[in-house]
Design goal:
With 136 residues, this protein is mainly β. It has one domain (35-135): Jelly Rolls, CATH 2.60.120. Helix content is 7%, strand content 40%. The protein contains one helix and nine strands. It has one helix at 12-20; strands spanning 40-44, 49-57, 60-67, 81-87, 90-94, 99-102, 107-110, 117-121, 125-132. The strands form two sheets. It has a six-stranded antiparallel sheet, with no helix packed on it.
Length: 136
């Protein structure tokens, strides 16, 4: 659970504080995230890739995700999310066969277990995704 210190220095103090005083939704101190400074994780879809930068704050997970063109998720997701599209057009497919398209400035919200959904793109997409225990 070790994170990168905002000043680029050691994260030992950050780790110690998070271990002794775990954050919850009610006690996140003011902080700025420099997304470009966070490490990238690349995940392959059925087609295309998802490049993620992840910030964990207690049980809150905030992700900046960039889907490549022609991305198709390799699974049906049943977790809850708050999704805000920043760039491109995100196609959401629901397991019941319905589909919708989110354009920049649009969002969706769903709680855990209330839908089976997956993402698809034609062109590249950039979005902010927030999830965690508050969506159970």
């Amino acid at each position: 659970m070790e994170g990168q210190a905002l000043d680029g220095g050691s994260s030992r103090i950050q780790y110690f504080v998070a271990t002794i005083y775990p954050m919850s939704m009610s006690n996140i101190p003011f902080q700025i995230t420099e997304w470009a400074g966070l490490p990238c994780t690349v995940v392959n879809g059925t087609t295309g890739t998802a490049t993620m930068r992840i910030q964990l704050l207690g049980d809150l997970r905030i992700r900046m995700i960039e889907y490549s063109a022609n991305y198709l998720a390799d699974h049906w997701c049943e977790l809850g999310h708050l999704v805000f599209v920043l760039e491109g057009e995100l196609i959401n497919e629901l397991k019941d066969g319905s589909m919708n398209v989110l354009k920049p400035g649009m969002s969706y919200a769903v709680s855990d277990g209330l839908s089976s959904h997956r993402s698809r793109t034609i062109g590249p997409v950039k979005m902010l995704v927030i999830d965690g225990g508050f969506l159970k």
